[in-house]
C-alpha cells in the first residue's frame, strides 16, 4: 500500500478518535470542568462509560442513540462531530501528503480540531475558551519554529509570529475603534485593571508612532508593547486604573497614520504593521493574564458591567491562532471570507426576523479552511490584479 494512502486511512481513524475527545472539550470547557477527570460518563445518569460505549460513531449507532444504562437519548451531534473530524483529517492527509509536506500535516490537523471545537462552543455559548486559543497560538508558533520543509503548508517561525500578532491586532483594532464609535467617542466607563483595552490602545499608538518614525517592524513592536507593559505596571503599583485617554491613543493612532501616509507608503506601511503587531502582542498578554487569573478565581465576574464592544475578545485570540498556523496573508483571506459570510447571514436574519447577535467564530473558522485550501491562489490572483 502506498505510504500516502496508508497515512490517509490512519489519520481518518485518528480523526474519529480526536473527534470523540472534541465532544468532551465541547461539553466540558464552557462549564469549567476538567477535561480528563472524571472519565467519560453519561450526563443524564452519570454512569461511567466503558470501552464498548466509546467507539466513535459505532457505539452510538449500535445503541440506537441511547445510553446503555439509563436509555436517555444521546444527541446525534456526537457522531456527527466525530465524522467531521475523521473526514477533515483524511482530507488534510489527502491534500497535503506526508511524503511531500512532512510534519506540517500534523499541525494542520491540530488547527482543524481547534477550529472545530471553537466553532461549536461559540455557536452554543457565544464564547471561545482560552484553553483553546492561547495554547493553540503557542502550538502554532512551535510548529513554525521546527518547520524546515520547503513545501510545508505552515509558515516559518518569523512568519508565524507575525501572523499571530498582526492577526490578533487586526481584530482588536476593529474592536477598539468600533467600541469607540459605539460610545460616541466617550471614554470607557469600565476600564480593566491592571491590563485591558486601554493598554492595548496605548500599544497601538506606540507601534504606529515608532513604526512610522523608525521604519522598523521589530522596533515598533518592541516600543509599542513596552508602553502597554509600562502602563500595566503603573496600574499594578497604583492598585487602580491610571487612565490613558482614548482621544490620545486611538485618535493619535489615526492622526499618526494620516501623517505617515503623507510621508510615503513605506512609513505608512511600517506604522500600520507596527501598530497592529504591538496591539496584538498586548492582546495576547492580556488574554493570558485574564485566563490565568480566572483559573485562580481572581477574574472579574462575567456578569460585571462592561463597555460596548464591536468584536468579541475570543475572536481576537482565535485570529491569533489562525495567523500563527497559516501566516498573516492567509489570515486576511480568512477574515475576508468570514466577513462576507457574516454579512450574508446578517441580511438573511434581518429579513427573516432571526436573532441579531452574530457568532463570528464559526465564520472565521470557515474562512481559515478556505484560506488553507485556496489562500495561496487567492493571494496570487489578487496580486496579479494589482499588477504586483
Fold and architecture overview:
The protein is mostly helical. It folds into two domains: 3-95, no CATH class; 157-386, no CATH class. Helix content is 71%, strand content 0%. The protein has 14 helices and no strands. Helix 6 (130-146) packs antiparallel against helix 7 (157-182) and helix 8 (197-214) packs antiparallel against helix 9. The longest helix is centred in the C-terminal third of the chain and has 31 residues, at 265-295. The radius of gyration is 22 Å and the shape is globular. Residues 297-301 have low confidence and may be disordered. The chain crosses the membrane at residues 6-27, 78-96, 102-121, 133-154, 160-182, 194-211, 247-266, 272-292, 331-348, 360-382. One of its GO terms (cellular component) is plasma membrane. Belongs to the peptidase A24 family.
Which features characterize this protein?
Prepilin peptidase, 2 domains, mainly alpha, cell membrane, 14 helices
Number of domains: 2
Low-confidence stretches: 297-301
Helix content: over 70%
Distance between the termini: 44 Å
**Radius of gyration, whole Å:** 22 Å
- Per DSSP, the total helix count is 14
Q: Give the number of DSSP strands.
A: 0
The overall pLDDT average reads 90
Q: Which sheet architecture does the biggest sheet show? A: none
- Strand-residue proportion: under 5%
What string, H for helix and E for strand, traces the elements in order?
Answer: HHHHHHHHHHHHHH
Which structural class do you get from the secondary structure elements? mainly alpha
The shape, in one word, is: globular
Amino acid at each position: 500500500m502506498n505510504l500516502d494512502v496508508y497515512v490517509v486511512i490512519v489519520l481518518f481513524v485518528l480523526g474519529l478518535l480526536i473527534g470523540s475527545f472534541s465532544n468532551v472539550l465541547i461539553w466540558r470547557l464552557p462549564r469549567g470542568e476538567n477535561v480528563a477527570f472524571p472519565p467519560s460518563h453519561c450526563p443524564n445518569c452519570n454512569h461511567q462509560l466503558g470501552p464498548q460505549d466509546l467507539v466513535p460513531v459505532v457505539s452510538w449507532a449500535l445503541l440506537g442513540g441511547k445510553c446503555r444504562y439509563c436509555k436517555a437519548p444521546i444527541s446525534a451531534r456526537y457522531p456527527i462531530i466525530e465524522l467531521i473530524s475523521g473526514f477533515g483529517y483524511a482530507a488534510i492527509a489527502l491534500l497535503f501528503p506526508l511524503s511531500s509536506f512532512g510534519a506540517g500535516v500534523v499541525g494542520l490537523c491540530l488547527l482543524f480540531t481547534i477550529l472545530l471545537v471553537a466553532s461549536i462552543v461559540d455557536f452554543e455559548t457565544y464564547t471561545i475558551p482560552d484553553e483553546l486559543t492561547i495554547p493553540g497560538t503557542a502550538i502554532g508558533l512551535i510548529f513554525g519554529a521546527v518547520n524546515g520543509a520547503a513545501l510545508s503548508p505552515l509558515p516559518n517561525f518569523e512568519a508565524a509570529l507575525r501572523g499571530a500578532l498582526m492577526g490578533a491586532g487586526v481584530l482588536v483594532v476593529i474592536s477598539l475603534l468600533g467600541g469607540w464609535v459605539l460610545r460616541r467617542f466617550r471614554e470607557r466607563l469600565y476600564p480593566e485593571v491592571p491590563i485591558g483595552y486601554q493598554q492595548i490602545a496605548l500599544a497601538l499608538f506606540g507601534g504606529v508612532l515608532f513604526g512610522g518614525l523608525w521604519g522598523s517592524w521589530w522596533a515598533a513592536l518592541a516600543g509599542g508593547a513596552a508602553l502597554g507593559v509600562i502602563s500595566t505596571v503603573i496600574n499594578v503599583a497604583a492598585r487602580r486604573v491610571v487612565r490613558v485617554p482614548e482621544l490620545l491613543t486611538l485618535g493619535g493612532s489615526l492622526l499618526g497614520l494620516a501623517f505617515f501616509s503623507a510621508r510615503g507608503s513605506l512609513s505608512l506601511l511600517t506604522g500600520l504593521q507596527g501598530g497592529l503587531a504591538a496591539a496584538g502582542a498586548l492582546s495576547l498578554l492580556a488574554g493570558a493574564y485574564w485566563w490565568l487569573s480566572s483559573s485562580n478565581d481572581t477574574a472579574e465576574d462575567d456578569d460585571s458591567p462592561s463597555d460596548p464592544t464591536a468584536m468579541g475578545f475570543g475572536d481576537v485570540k482565535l485570529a491569533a491562532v489562525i495567523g500563527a498556523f497559516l501566516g498573516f496573508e492567509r489570515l486576511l483571506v480568512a477574515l475576508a471570507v468570514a466577513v462576507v459570510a457574516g454579512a450574508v447571514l446578517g441580511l438573511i436574519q434581518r429579513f427573516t426576523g432571526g436573532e441579531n447577535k452574530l457568532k463570528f467564530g464559526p465564520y472565521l473558522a470557515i474562512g481559515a479552511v478556505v484560506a488553507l485550501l485556496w489562500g495561496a491562489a487567492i493571494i496570487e490572483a489578487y496580486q496579479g490584479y494589482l499588477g504586483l
